[in-house]
Amino acid sequence: MRRGRRSWGLLVYSVLVFAFLFAPVLIVVLFSFNRTASLTFPFEGWTLRWYRAVFASPDYRAAIAASLKVALATVAIVAVIGTAAAVAVTRYSFRGREALRSILLIPAALPGLFVGIALLSLFIRVHLDLSLQTAALGHIVYTLPYFFLVASSRLLRFDPLLEESARDLGAGWFTTFRKVTMPIIAPALIAGALVVFSLSWDEVLITFFTIGSQNTLPLVIYSRVKQAVDPSINAISALLLLGSLVFIVGIRRYVVDLQQ
Amino acid sequence: MSLEAAPAAAPSALATKRRRRSVLLLAGPALLVLGGALLVPILLLLLQSFVVSLGYGQLQYTFTWSNYTSALQDPVYRSIAVRTFSMGAITATTCLVLGYPVSFFITFRLERARNLALFLVVVSLFTSYLVRLYAWYTILGQKGVINTALKAIGVIDAPLSFLLFSRWAVLLAFVNVFLPFTILILASSMQSIPGELLENSRDLGASPMQSFTKVVLPLTTPGLVAAFAYTFVLTSGDYITPALLGGKQGTTLATIVTDQFIAFGNQPGGAAISFLMVLVFAAVYISVSQTRRYRGL
Q1: 20 to 30 A Cα–Cα from B174, which one of A125, A163, B99, B291?
Q2: Chain A 172-191, CB below 8 Å of chain B: which residues?
């Protein structure tokens, strides 16, 4: 591979693009440790004051709890129904298999707005009060395709002969699944679950329409941003980032897999 | 029925039945969720777009086209529709233009650092969307990073107010949010180009520029088109970014739909506009699949 002058140009350009991608967020994280409330450089000192403010605030604590509840419920349900659907699509041949695969991917192609208002009008018609549960239902629909993609791509890449041999040796379908399939696909399922968690943790577009009086973390930020400059938003934003990034770093090993 | 028509290992009727039951059991729950929480709501929304709204959430169930005709005839809506879709198209194009060289660099110029670079793109993809919007808010705002810095070094006396609450702010944030996605799609379509193909084109005397325009560009067309469609649809349907950063110029079709639903309780009106939007999106997706077929890829 030649590293001509053109490559150096591309390198510098790419570094600039990465700077553009990361700089805004880094600025928020930096200011979350700033001692004064203003958004000016240079810093006058470091503090954890804004983080203490976040954890002392009942509003923020309730929002963190709400976000966690919704995300965990979403992960639990999506992992079960998504794995089962992935097994059906990758391990059985039947008429309509391609159609089933496409149907399972549809929610990823729809704007959140559309899913949100459709669900809202259903909830209104059947007189279901909006709550964390209704929000979780929206998140389940939204994240299912992503989990299905991760799980089915892992299932496609391992040899079904392993399962067939287990069956031939007399194992029932459940034993085969538990002793052969599950251990092999478990890491991918965990990766999928983490992806679902971070998507749910950060979701605003559908949540806005489907949640009741309790707000999730992103909604609290959304409603507070428009008010005056409030440095605790920097701190809560940094926490929101931490929530989604810890998981992505956790699945680093699979990221290149997801690429393909 | 000829003998050949029967497959060698014809599954017995019982096995077929059992298999069908397994598929149903496995895929059933997911289909049930998508049916109950996506298909039924969408059908209900479609139904509502054809009934009369009495305001404040009250509906009168008589059939009417008026939600659609009044949305299509309203000159304000029309200009907002043009603004919305052109913002989507401009964002998607900007992402492609900015992202293409990065994907090219990652795929063809990096070796050991390639996975690290791709990982960084994924990290940025999963960096909270709302936090990024808020970040631009703090950077561009009246008391934001840029204004305070410019004031401190004496370039300006009063804060520049046009930075925030403008179409430029919305575009900047959109590009920031959707660029990682574009880079990933383009990189994965470039990865499927066999390396020998590029070497061969060089050996046959093609200049670097030629092997780029004749080999790389055509083979990445499906990626380009897919990234464009995805970015176009998701930016055109977004109401949070324009609401936070767009100010008065920020009204989009999505904002109108939201207002109709939440503020005015006019679900039929909002539903009709949202279905008109979905028609545009469907047209974009269909033309994408046409390009793929045409290319034979």
Answers
A1: B291
A2: 173
